[in-house]
Amino acid sequence: MSKTDMIITEDALNRLDQHWAIQALGNDQVARALDVAAVRIMRSAVGRQMTIEFEETKSDAKVVERAAMAYELAAIEGLYALLHPSDDESRVQLRVQAQAGAFRAYSLRRTLPIPDGPEDCIFHVLHLAALAYCGDQWADLRRWLKDYEREVRPPSVADVSWDHRVLRRLYECWLRLLRKQGWDDLDGISEIIAGLRKDQEQYENTVLDKSDNAAAQAEALRLIALYHWAKATELLAIYILQGQPVGIEAELDKHFEAGQQAASAAQDAAFEVILRWLHVTSRRMVAGSLWKVAQAVNSRVTRF
Amino acid sequence: MKELKITIPGSVVSKKNSKRVVLVGGKNVPRRPMVLPSKAYEEWEKHAYSGTDIVGFQETNKETKLYRFAFGEVKTSEQEKWPPGVMNGRHGLMKQLEDLRDSTNVKDSLVKYLGHHADRAAWLPLYKSAAKRYLSDPCDVSLFGILIRDVEPKPEDLARRAKDLAAGCPDTTSIELRAMYLPRKTINSLSERAVRARGGDYVKN
């Protein structure tokens, strides 16, 4: 098994349940949260064709949220080990913990309502997608995106400020990367990024032209973070389509790390956190891409 | 005065409350100037993380080394009014503390954010101790509201606000309001002095 392969075993999930964050919540709460989430998924799958005898209480929504939070904290603890895999035993354990934690957090969070506001919705979907990729649930995520196609579609960019326009257009790019609806869909990403570069000349100054120096500085830093994210997105889409550049991992690291630093300097913690998750997601996408799989198979094929 | 001790991972965010003066009133009410946060500041507040000025850990038991999360909001005001305008409104100190008291959204984000930075940090044991308590009871936190003034000290700055916050406060949440009174006309030069004290530049996290 390569350092980046992932198999979430029963044993990994059992060990995860001994983690301090899960123990702090208590076994009863965790069991209830998992039951509620499982029934919600079942109900959404069977619709009205079958009646499932299970009654949710008023506090169940909070219980699911708290459990998702606990599992996410366990995943966060091992995120660095997942991003930079190594054979060191303690790092392997942390990586498995991150995968199992993300798997559980995803299965709980996918049953939570999608927030109404455009930005809240964007962050919710990207966060959920990152958990899915880290928890090896990308195929389930595709189904989820299809089920909620209307709710998660990119919000309009008309009459929004430049930074929001960039955010919304990048979200559209990521939806394309996540739903994997063929080559044309992916090909459109480069066009979106090229369109943003063109729009930059027209709109950027409207955001930076502020009388308050501190606000202008924060906005500039936020834009720097967005631009690094845009570049990483473009490179990722090209790699998924063409298998180039070969050293894509280093390029992704460079742009996502610079983006995180800029978001942190802008004191936009929510943005910094989502960039951390998308950084790992992008590396998982590369590791699972056709090109990497072909590379791994090719090294084992001696005759054709 | 009772000692206030919080362990803070990283730097304290200080922000200037920029303001604009608008004229309100008209047909039936006499027109008068009103001080509001500047458009740029409102925009920055909205876009930047709707977070908290101080995030840290508070020791609650010396023997067992038990900690819990401490979240604080800081406002500065030179306004000759008691309480000053920064206490009220959509971005006022009261609203920020009420949000921290009543909603888990902001607190959850802060706890996760710290989790991303906790790896190999000196404060990791403090974080784990506080996070365990937070997961078992999200109300088990310490909240602080700090008002920095350069006008005459008056109890009216905090007295009624403290009563309002106490009503509806969960049993396990503690809220503390503090006012610091600096010499007159010193708030405007506060950020420059802080930068100078740090050696001419902002300290990075």
What do these coordinates show?
The complex is a heterodimer of chains A (304) and B (205). Helices cover 75% and strands 0% of the residues of chain A. Chain A is mostly helical and 304 residues long. Chain A has two domains: 100 residues, no CATH class; 178 residues. In chain A, helix 4 packs antiparallel against helix 6. About 10% of the residues of chain B have low confidence. At the A-B interface, helix 2, helix 4, helix 12 and helix 14 of A face helix 1, helix 3 and helix 4 of B.
SSE layout and pairing:
The complex is a heterodimer of chains A (304) and B (205).
Chain A lengths: L9 H7 L3 H6 L1 H20 L13 H18 L1 H5 L5 H21 L8 H17 L3 H10 L1 H4 L9 H18 L3 H26 L4 H30 L5 H18 L3 H19 L2 H9 L6
Chain B lengths: L18 E6 L7 E6 L1 H9 L6 E8 L4 E12 L15 H10 L2 H13 L6 H13 L5 E8 L9 H8 L7 E8 L8 H8 L8
Parallel strand pairs in B: 4-5, 5-6
Antiparallel strand pairs in B: 1-2, 3-4
From the spread of the alpha carbons, the general shape of chain B counts as: globular
Give the H and E element order of chain B.
EEHEEHHHEHEH
Strand content of chain B: 15-25%
Radius of gyration of chain A: 20 Å
Q: How many separate helices of chain A?
A: 15
| Span between termini of chain A | 23 Å
- Termini gap of chain B: 30 Å
How many structurally independent domains of chain B? Answer: 1
Mean pLDDT of chain A: 91
Shape of chain A: globular
Task: Tell me the domain tally of chain A.
Answer: 2
Please list the strands of the largest sheet of chain B in the order they lie side by side: 3-4-5-6
